[in-house]
Amino acid sequence: MNYIAKNERESMEIGKKIAAKLKGGDILCLYGDLGAGKTTLVKGLAKGLGIKKNITSPTFALMNMYSAKLHKLVHIDTYRLKNEQELVDIGIEDYLGAPDTICVIEWPEKMHKLLKNKKTLKVKIEHLKNGRKITSP
Ligand SMILES: Nc1ncnc2c1ncn2[C@@H]1O[C@H](COP(=O)(O)OP(=O)(O)O)[C@@H](O)[C@H]1O
Ligand SMILES: [Mg+2]
């Protein structure tokens, strides 16, 4: 996958396309700096899963959960995480890889221990002068 998104709307469209390929149990790691557009991509992804609720950044909550038609969507943002135990305390291990759940993670680097033995999908977002480059290996 290799896309250029010229604006927020195009990033959301790409999120929708990614959603179409996801299945229950998938863990999607979103790599990219602050302001790269990770949450924007999740907004489109949620739309693609049929979620009508407005997606807000879980920067303070660490994790938000939504129910979609086929699965739950768990949106994690570890930006303010102090240690991985905090995620364990809120029950994250019940969701990571659970067959009825899609997990999307902003700042996956900060929970690498919890992800160590999990199969993950990876998407990287980079700033361009006009827009963003969205790639996956
Ligand atoms: N493809 C894009 N082109 C230009 N601006 C974008 C694009 N995608 C997202 N943005 C903008 O970047 C800003 C940060 O987006 P956000 O999704 O909150 O980033 P992150 O979650 O990575 O910190 C927002 O103002 C958003 O509208
Ligand atoms: Mg964000």
Describe this structure in words.
With 137 residues, this protein is α/β, with parallel strands linked by helices. It has one domain: P-loop containing nucleotide triphosphate hydrolases (Rossmann fold, 3-Layer(aba) Sandwich). The protein is 26% helix and 28% strand. The chain is built from four helices and seven strands; from the N terminus they run βαβαββαβαββ. It has a seven-stranded mixed sheet with strand order 1-7-6-2-5-4-3, covered by helices on one side. Strand 6 and strand 7 form a beta hairpin. The longest helix is centred in the N-terminal third of the chain and has 14 residues. The chain is globular, with a radius of gyration of 14 Å. It starts with a strand and ends with a strand. The model has no long low-confidence stretch (mean pLDDT 96). Magnesium ion binds next to helix 2.
Highlighted features:
4 helices, binds adenosine-5'-diphosphate, 28% strand, 137 residues, binds magnesium ion, globular, seven-stranded mixed sheet, Rossmann fold, 26% helix, alpha/beta, 7 strands
In short:
The protein is an alpha/beta fold and 137 residues long.
